[in-house]
Design brief:
It is a single chain. 33% of the residues lie in helices and 14% in strands. Strand 6 (108-111), helix 5 and strand 7 (135-137) form a beta-alpha-beta unit. It has 332 residues and is of the alpha/beta class. The radius of gyration is 20 Å and the shape is globular. Helix 6 (161-174) runs antiparallel to helix 7 and helix 7 (178-196) runs parallel beside helix 12 (314-327). It folds into 2 domains: 31-160, Nitrogenase molybdenum iron protein domain (Rossmann fold), CATH 3.40.50; 199-327, 3-Layer(aba) Sandwich (Rossmann fold). The chain has helices at residues 4-10, 52-60, 82-86, 98-102, 125-130, 161-174, 178-196, 224-232, 250-256, 276-285, 293-296, 314-327, and strands at residues 30-32, 35-37, 47-49, 67-71, 90-92, 108-111, 135-137, 145-146, 154-155, 205-211, 217-218, 235-236, 260-264, 300-303. It has a 5-stranded parallel β-sheet. Residues 134-158 are annotated as: Disordered. InterPro entries: ABC_Transporter_SBP (IPR050902), ABC_transptr_periplasmic_BD (IPR002491).
Length: 332
């Protein structure tokens, strides 16, 4: 049920739902995060995606045969997309070098996060574009968001699923498969509506913990967790901060005492307490957190890292948090 929105599209061939040949369709330039994406009118044939979220959108649009590399994974690939993933080389589990990406001879590079295509990341958009390689950045990480400071940035406007759908439509346009893009958006929208039908969680408080035990990253008001919370009509106990993932002390967390803890179940190893098992072990042994209501009652909802990032798997997050709230008997 959770995967019905992508399975129909994952196996699309090169001719159904829109041409990807580039022979008859001219790809129009589009504006993206303050830059123009211009492929010279041609459909990309050797694309590289540098973040898992964008990669899974491209796989879901049936574009694996137009890709020569992926990178930066936090989780196993989404179910239903394993075959597509097997056919595309992983350049690195985290950031690949600029030279490694260029070695694939890409004609298009996409990323989910400004940090990936910025200083300290793989390379800047300018560096790629100087070599004639057009780049695309997920609008979820630039529209209504300030990435100029430290950390993961802050938002002046709450993120909406429409912005995520905008990325689907943009990539579908760049690869000249607009019909597939509209089908995917329709399926994702239907899943959100089904998951939240007749759900009233207005009295439920949630906390989203992404990673790190010593200085935990908790979700602020307005990123992907904000979408999930808003769709349920619930409340994020840290909705008073516009930072994307502020680091918050456990004393403050315990003081907010949320009804439910939404926990990132990550497979990477770049921070402490990445897996859900490690997080729960910490919560139930730490003297500050073990007396929290959610911990004492074991009210945990486990999400993939991608479900907590702005991506099509945010829909998966809506489904799983809605189901968990219902299971715990907290919804009206």
């Amino acid at each position: 049920m959770l995967l019905s929105g992508v399975l129909l599209l994952a196996g699309c061939g090169g001719t159904s739902g829109g041409s990807t040949s580039g022979a008859s369709d001219r790809v129009r330039p589009l504006e993206n995060c303050g830059r123009t994406v211009d492929t010279g009118g041609a459909v990309p044939q050797r694309a590289v995606s540098l973040n898992q979220g964008t990669t899974e959108i491209m796989f879901s649009l049936g574009l694996a045969d137009r890709m020569v590399g992926t990178a930066t994974w936090t989780d196993p690939v989404m179910k239903g997309l394993e075959k597509a993933d097997e056919g595309v080389e992983r350049l690195a589990e985290n950031y690949p070098s600029f030279e490694r990406v260029l070695g694939t001879e890409p004609d298009f590079v996409a990323a989910s996060f400004a940090s990936t295509l910025g200083k300290g990341g793989v390379a800047t958009r300018e560096q790629f574009e100087k070599l004639g390689v057009p780049t695309y950045l997920s609008p979820s990480d630039c529209e209504g968001k300030d990435n100029s400071g430290g950390g993961d940035g802050s938002r002046s406007e709450p993120l909406a699923m429409e912005t995520v759908y905008g990325e689907v439509r943009d990539l579908a346009r760049i690869f000249s498969v607009e019909e597939r893009g509209e089908k995917l958006v329709a399926q994702l929208t239907s899943r959100v509506n089904k998951a939240t039908k007749d759900l009233d969680a207005s009295d439920v408080t949630l906390l989203y913990w992404f990673a790190n035990a010593e200085s935990p990253y908790m979700a602020g008001c307005c990123g992907a967790p904000g979408i999930i919370t808003g769709e349920l009509g619930a409340k994020n106990v840290f909705d008073d901060t516009t930072e994307e993932w502020p680091q918050i002390s456990w004393e403050t967390v315990a003081d907010r005492n949320p009804d439910v803890l939404v926990i990132g179940d990550l497979t990477r190893k770049s921070e402490t307490a990445e897996s859900a098992a490690k997080k729960i072990e910490f919560l139930e042994s730490n003297p500050v957190t073990k007396t929290m209501d959610a911990v004492r009652n074991k009210r945990y909802i486990l999400l993939s890292g991608q479900a907590m990032n702005p991506a099509i798997r945010t829909v998966e997050g809506v489904e799983q948090v809605a189901a968990g709230v219902r299971e715990y008997g907290l919804a009206k």
